[in-house]
Specification:
This protein has about 350 residues and is an alpha/beta fold. It has twelve helices and nine strands. It has two domains: about 100 residues, TPP-binding domain (Rossmann fold); about 210 residues, 3-Layer(aba) Sandwich (Rossmann fold). The strands form two sheets. The chain has a six-stranded parallel β-sheet with strand order 5-4-6-7-9-8, with helices on both faces. A three-stranded parallel β-sheet has the order 1-2-3, covered by helices on one side. The longest helix is centred in the N-terminal third of the chain and has 20 residues. About 35% of the residues lie in helices and about 15% in strands.
Length: about 350
């Protein structure tokens, strides 16, 4: 019955289905804006639904949504107790019809997702179209994520940094077990993906692990490359999306400043794959979907042999949905700027 994550770049199927809910049982969820704001043009949150929110932190209950019932407790323990109070026939009414609706929504979304190659431009902007024309030989973020889907081991633990390319990937991975996905959440900072996947491997040394980060966020924690190759450190796989830009920041500025941006460009002469080699690790640079899938499969297998691999994925500069579109508005000119007020700087 799982249909994927709600919210920012999540599952359209999940959004369409929860919109029909009469009651929402939120187990261990803060119901924060990233999880409940409109997506894909759908304002899906059921405005009239009763909400039962379960959280071990009482301060979070009712913080972002008005709740009908708030329960302070461990999510698993509360879920078990709720199940124990339900009759054996609870939920049987129209069960098959509801399953059919869920199946149809999932199938339609997966089919649509498999055909989504590129990002749309907002009216008045043309950045994504220009990127596709300029770098026609490079993968888009969505093409890269489909290649990752094809090569990711089903038992893998993954971690994701914040950033535009990682956010685009929110809809792609699926999990058959719990405790497999590490996300910044309340940690929130750039640089989370790399150290968190190192911790996951230390905690679960027999499980393949894969971390994801954009090239901007990865620069925050890349100093750990000098440490993770030591003999007593377990091997990991790290994927770095290389598009030479701070994507989330550029996405906001191109949207609200008429396709303009400043301070978002990264050094195109730097190769993280070569940095990895310089640290005594394995570095691989890929430019096609087939190369990416093959490199990911090989890197996960190599973890058994103690080999840490950094896969540098060369992408075009397409940009996905901005963070918190609802929280920002296009700037309004107040006083105006006169070019005559601009004084050229004099050289020393």
């Amino acid at each position: 019955l799982a249909v994927g994550p709600l919210g920012y770049n999540g599952s359209k199927a999940a959004m369409e289905l929860i919109a029909q809910a009469d009651v929402v049982l939120a187990l261990g969820s803060r119901l924060n804006p990233f999880s409940t704001l409109p997506g894909y043009g759908i304002d899906y949150w059921p405005k009239d639904a009763a909400i039962i929110q379960v959280d071990i932190n009482a301060d979070r209950i009712g913080l972002s949504k008005k709740v009908s019932v708030g329960i302070c407790g461990d999510a698993r323990m509360v879920a078990v107790q709720i199940l124990a109070r339900l009759s054996a026939s609870a939920g049987d009414t129209d069960r098959d019809a509801r399953k059919a609706i869920i199946h149809q929504a999932k199938s339609s979304w997966l089919q649509a997702l498999s055909g989504m190659d590129h990002e749309d431009d907002d009216p008045g902007t043309s950045w994504n179209a220009e990127c596709r024309a300029r770098d026609a030989d490079l993968m888009s973020p969505r093409q890269a994520w489909r290649a990752i889907q094809a090569g990711l081991p089903p038992t893998a633990i993954i971690s994701s940094d914040i950033g535009n390319n990682c956010a685009i990937g929110n809809a792609y991975p699926t999990f058959e077990q719990g405790r497999k996905y590490l996300a910044p959440g309340l940690f929130g900072p750039c640089g989370y993906g790399f150290p968190s996947i190192l911790g996951a491997k230390i905690g679960c040394p027999q499980v393949p692990v894969v971390g994801f980060a954009g090239d901007g966020a990865f620069g925050i924690s890349m100093n750990e490359m000098t440490s993770c190759g030591r003999a007593d450190w377990p091997a990991i796989t790290m994927i770095i999306f290389r598009n030479f830009q701070w994507g989330a920041e550029k996405r906001n500025t191109t949207l609200w400043y008429d396709n303009n941006f400043v301070g978002t460009e990264l050094n195109p002469g730097l190769s993280y794959a070569r940095v990895a080699e310089g640290c005594g690790l394995k570095g691989v640079q890929v430019t096609t979907q087939a190369e990416l899938t093959e490199a990911l499969v090989s890197a996960c297998k190599a973890q058994d042999d103690g080999v840490t691999t950094f896969i540098e994925v060369m992408l075009n500069q397409e940009l996905g949905e901005p963070f918190r579109r609802d929280a920002m508005k296009k700037p309004v000119e107040v006083a105006g700027i006169d070019p005559g007020d601009m004084v050229p700087q004099q050289g020393a």
